[in-house]
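May I ask you for just one protein sequence along with its backbone structure tokens in two labelled lines?

_____
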Amino acid sequence: MLKLENVTKIFNPGTPNEKLALDKLNFEVEKGEFVTIIGGNGAGKSTLMNIVSGVYDIDGGKIFIDGQNVSAIKEHRRAKYLGRVFQDPMMGTAGDMNIEENLSLAMRRGKSRTLRWGMPKKERAFLVEKLASLELGLETRITSKVRLLSGGQRQAITLLMATLQQPKLLLLDEHTAALDPKTAQKVLHITEEITSESSLTTLMITHNMSDAIRYGNRLVMMHAGRIIFDIKGEEKQKLTVKDLLQKFEQAVGNEFANDRMLLN
């Protein structure tokens, strides 16, 4: 579903602030895989998300989504393949619109629009059912303004909006980092249910090693723009946080002390 061939990204090339963010990265993700991505600051995690989604152009290599070379396709055209949830719960929804209106827009993503007023009953019933599946009581508040909701509720709605059209790739960029621990676990549980139900191909960045081990069927560790550890299946299930910390320490040496608290 996703293939990167020798992808390179350099920020501020030819200046004293030049930064090699991705270093001839090769990375493949099979359809239906749920990959958690970890690494220290500056490892290239968010840059990876941004080059896949087209926010940044690449400086070398190729990107394929579902077999199509999208390397030269701009962000707004590449969006039809993707669903994305950001760290900030405020980014994925329109706060001055109500829940129903936000979901209705997500339902029509990539489709032609009409001037017909309102929402068909069948569509509203479908959205109410989807909201009920979140188990947050939002199905009874469908006309409430989104800005009145908590961060966790907004993030759950954003997640629902990002997956209504079943994208080829779901990108989760530390989507629980701004939430309190209890709410974060609720949103992660919802994430797992939605992705499992539709077998969505998913990339999830997290700084929480326990979450990286618990969720998904594959774990990737990045450092200095490269993948330094890649594990899946039963081997991943046997991992412990201690194992990951040791792997990270072996890979980054003296830099380990700066990122240990962040990753633990």
Observations:
- Residues 59 and 134 are 41 Å apart (CA to CA).
